[in-house]
Amino acid sequence: MSSENQSRLVSVRHEVEEELRAFLTRQSHYLNQISSDLSPVSTAITSFLLDSGKRLRPLFAFAGFASGKGVLDKASTRAMASLELLQACALIHDDLMDGSDTRRGKPSIHRHFETLHIQDELEGFAPQYGLSAAVLLGDLSLVWADQMLNSAGLTPKQLLDVVPIYDEMRVELMAGQFLDIHEQTQKHTDLDRSMKIARYKSGKYTIERPLHMGAALSSHSTPELMHALSEYGLPLGEAFQFRDDLLGVFGDPSLTGKPAGDDLREGKRTALIAMTDARCSEAMREESRKYFGKNDLDDKGIAILQDMIISTGAKEELETMIDDLTGRAMNAIENPAIDEGARTFLTELALIATKRSK
Amino acid sequence: MSSENQSRLVSVRHEVEEELRAFLTRQSHYLNQISSDLSPVSTAITSFLLDSGKRLRPLFAFAGFASGKGVLDKASTRAMASLELLQACALIHDDLMDGSDTRRGKPSIHRHFETLHIQDELEGFAPQYGLSAAVLLGDLSLVWADQMLNSAGLTPKQLLDVVPIYDEMRVELMAGQFLDIHEQTQKHTDLDRSMKIARYKSGKYTIERPLHMGAALSSHSTPELMHALSEYGLPLGEAFQFRDDLLGVFGDPSLTGKPAGDDLREGKRTALIAMTDARCSEAMREESRKYFGKNDLDDKGIAILQDMIISTGAKEELETMIDDLTGRAMNAIENPAIDEGARTFLTELALIATKRSK
Q: What is the pTM of this model?
């Protein structure tokens, strides 16, 4: 990979962040004009968005845009950046649904507002205030995402081309999220179901649809390009989700910003867990029930479950699947419908999505 | 009012409901193609939307549309109907935040999914499943609202005109909702703050912005028309919210679909409560603390608080304010910027919004 292209992705990320900052500054001012009581809202969303984040979805949108020979301007940068606000909604609501205390090493939004309630000695029940704030801040992030996209300054044609993809992506996201919470309520794990969740929550939402949105914004969007980007994006998206599953069990808390073994404590029915379960003896399965999904799971319990995932071979198999899926994605980059200038971006992003440690 | 115009509003409501039904049928089919596990989602949202509802926001949009000489077609009907999906999001999330068990005489969405969890003997914690389902069904309703608006078949000009109003309305809604939950945490009631919440939650969201959206869809949208509709919509919206406040305390459960005195049990800091509080003696205020906002508030406690609201004169004062505000709205209808043919619609809707018993 040329260092020129690598620095190009870094500069795109920087431009995305600058547009987010400008949008959030304007919107915070707007809220403050309604009432100064809204300042904790804008402060929390701004910090949530700007303090950290990989900006993966805007970067995939940029790669799709470059695949269609798009030349970046402020309007298209803003449209891509809006995906970060949608992701903020997904994460804020996700943490609330999972009861997660932390996100990116900081308190999750519902915990943050719960703490404000206690610190400021407000009336009522602090967890209910935290819940309500998280529901509304997620909703507001979702609405701001639309507003940022709609007011980006795109041409009417760009807007009319991109919006149907954007809408379908969001329906797929919510469908994937519901299947995910529903999966946690099932008596038995099921690899097919877990794979479908990975496909909708990540394959489509994180990678394929952002690529398509970027392509739709470019001037050379063709059915062949859309198809080629799906051939790249869908397997890569699944690989991305499987990496997430592995990090949720084996990730280093100092890098992930989440406690060690967090997915084990939450009892998340991921593809990794379904694969482990399918390879377990009945005795192991019995043993795992003592630890999996227990709120008070400690380091010893985590280590026992981790050993099980390794000794059944599930971890290794998932790593192999990630490699295979990434390989399929890499092959798809050679499709002639994709502009040559975009290939190094797609290659680099495939590595970032699957080799990451956070 | 001519019976011809009255039946016109009834037929518009019917057309709005038919478009909602068609949209929901198509979207339910789409979800079902992803997974049959999503059928409780589409069933619940469809029933929530189609079993009842006054369709006030689409009807106000229609009145704004008629004010600008708009002639109704399928595309504009769909755009107006999309407001019902947005309202579904607001109500589903509102019930979750308030911990309300019922909506329109049926279980609220979080309670409905909690019950499904128990009935189907699912794994995990039923209330957490109910919470997650309510978060996601609200999010999906919000996304479907956009999708219905964006895919309504409007001309590009109509879409570009209406979307900025739609986006601003949704930001105002979320801001109003946050101010509302924040108000419940304050040590003291404050009439000015409660009035501002009424303005954002209802004045703008329920009435002014739907009118503006309708006007933007029409062919005669002018700054004068927008201004005239604000002069009508803002006072009427406040009157609408105050009627809601009164129904939350004095409403007949068989009509409201909510338990008697629900707002008293939830301890809602409405304008009505702020006005009562300002007129109370210290002894009465002391007495009210025994009942107001108590989960186990019974009929006797409700009657004591109701008496207080009546004896301080707060109820009567709020009724007078509703009359005054409605009068201001009625006067604004005479503005020449408003097409004559729309005036009877605006008059009828003003009565529906303020004289209702549910």
A: 0.94
